[in-house]
Automatic annotation (TrEMBL):
It is a multi-pass membrane protein. This is Uncharacterized protein. Pfam families: Gpr1_Fun34_YaaH. Keywords: Membrane, Transmembrane, Transmembrane helix. It is found in: Membrane. GO terms for molecular function: acetate transmembrane transporter activity. InterPro entries: AceTr, Gpr1/Fun34/SatP-like. Coiled coil: none annotated. The lineage of its organism: Bacteria, Bacillati, Actinomycetota, Actinomycetes, Micrococcales. Its main location: membrane. GO terms for cellular component: plasma membrane.
């Protein structure tokens, strides 16, 4: 008996070779850089604001543009690549804050035109931003939540000090700023050390 092939049946397509997807390039966690840049620049400025080292205000100018500004802004861009909305928003925004602050420091005519009320409005806007970032931080870890609470109090103190002209409140905000910087430094150290030691040497305190 002869088997007859069905001429109407389509020919079987040739097997298409399967191509492997291109491997994703892993990038380092930018949080260590972003937190470190925020911490160091905030620390130096707060030394001046608190009255502990008044001349630190002049030393912070370079830090505001290069480390707190550009380096932290770059950390925010890398957080975008990693898909971390919170980190990207925080680092990019505060990097821009330090660049704007550098502009005010290096353009006295702009600062003079803004006056105390204008500077107060500038700081108030950053206070409001930090408040809603604090709400977001409540779903991250203890370190970040503590950092944003402290940062909110720092901005709030500086805002009240600018509007009221109170040197005492301004100095108090400087002391809170030092605490803020120390918390951020801890977070930066935790990310850097934990990644190299491959274990939680410095715990961040995950939140439920």
């Amino acid at each position: 008996m002869t088997t007859v092939l069905n001429p109407t049946r389509p020919a079987r397509p040739e097997t298409t070779p399967v191509t492997e997807p291109a491997p994703r390039i892993a990038i380092a966690d930018p949080a260590a850089l972003g937190l470190g840049a925020f911490a160091l620049t905030t620390f130096v400025l707060s030394l001046a604001n608190s009255g502990l080292i008044p001349t630190a205000g002049a030393a912070v100018i370079g830090l505001a543009v290069f480390y707190g500004g550009i380096a932290q802004f770059a950390a925010g861009m890398w957080e975008f690549i990693k898909g971390n909305t919170f980190g990207a928003t925080a680092f990019t925004s505060y990097g821009a804050f330090w660049l704007a602050f550098w502009w005010l420091l290096t353009h006295p005519e702009t600062e003079a035109a803004a006056g105390a009320a204008g500077i107060g409005a500038f700081l108030l806007a950053w206070t409001l931003f930090t408040v809603y970032m604090t709400i977001a931080a409540a779903r991250t870890n203890v370190m970040l939540l503590s950092l944003f609470i402290a940062a909110t109090l720092t901005f709030l103190g500086l805002t009240i000090g600018a509007f009221s002209g109170s040197a005492a409140i301004h100095q108090l905000a400087g002391w809170i700023g030092i605490a803020t910087a120390l918390i951020a430094w801890y977070g930066s150290a935790a990310v850097a050390v934990n990644s190299t030691w491959k274990r939680a040497v410095f715990p961040l305190g995950p939140l439920a």
